[in-house]
Amino acid sequence: MRTSTRLAALGLALTLLGAVQPAHAATGPRKGVSAEAFSGASQDLIDVGASWYYDWSSTTGSITKPAGVEFVPMIWGAASVNPTELANARRAGSTLLGFNEPDLPGQANMSVQRALDLWPQLADTGLRLGAPAVAFGGATPGGWLDQFMSGAAARGYRVDFIPLHWYGGDFSAQASNQLRGYLQAVHDRYHKPIWLTEYALTDYSTGTPRYPSQQQQIDFVRASTAMLNGLSFVERYAWFTLSANAHPTGLYQGTARNAVGTAYRAVR
């Protein structure tokens, strides 16, 4: 789970005209981003106007957390359920993200039973706690998340909100509505706040990722964020991901913002 010379020249022209945007664009509390460590990540978090971020771990690692930007720790998988990681999470934030894509072999890869058995240790941190973030099928009856939520309810375990991942394979103008339908279905099923912690347009249906054109991704950023900001049950969302060097849907190459990053930066 590119900025061109022309864009650089445009940025210089805007600076000379005094029309360049502020270093930290004003934004709402929902807008965030996932971020792996790379040179310039801290500066990019400020530039894109993220109010929060996470890095799939219990600490900020080599990313220096910018002032005014919240870090949200995660307990990634079964091996991370240990005193050190749990203590790190307690120190790092007030909210904790649960296991990352436990329904995928290449990710946390956990049975529902194993996740439930470990869950009390996450709850004992006292942090506000998000369910394991499944890769897909969050609203499917009998699916991984459905089994987990039923098991948690039966055992009296606390789950405060539902993190979700979504990658749209339809690059048309309907993508935003498709995302909305998925979020609504999950909310209708569990009646808990939603955090969309990974999302972008990427088609994984053939096994080899297929990506939209830059303009299609830009259009989706604009439509999806407008939609997300209008859903009362969506508390937060995070674009996947900050670094374009790490993934084609990323927003920055080093500290150079690409066109999709510019579109996400403009979101309020």
TrEMBL record:
InterPro entries given in the database record? ASL1, Asl1_glyco_hydro_catalytic, GH
Keywords assigned by UniProt, alphabetized: Signal
One short Pfam name that applies is Glyco_hydro_cc
Show where the Asl1-like glycosyl hydrolase catalytic domain sits: 48-249
| Gene3D superfamilies assigned to the protein according to its UniProt record, in alphabetical order | Glycosidases
Could you tell me which SUPFAM superfamilies the record lists for this protein?
(Trans)glycosidases (SSF51445)
Cleaved signal peptide residues: 1-25
* One GO BP: fungal-type cell wall polysaccharide metabolic process
Superkingdom field = Bacteria
Q: What is this protein called?
A: Asl1-like glycosyl hydrolase catalytic domain-containing protein
Lineage of the species this protein comes from:
Bacteria, Bacillati, Actinomycetota, Actinomycetes, Pseudonocardiales
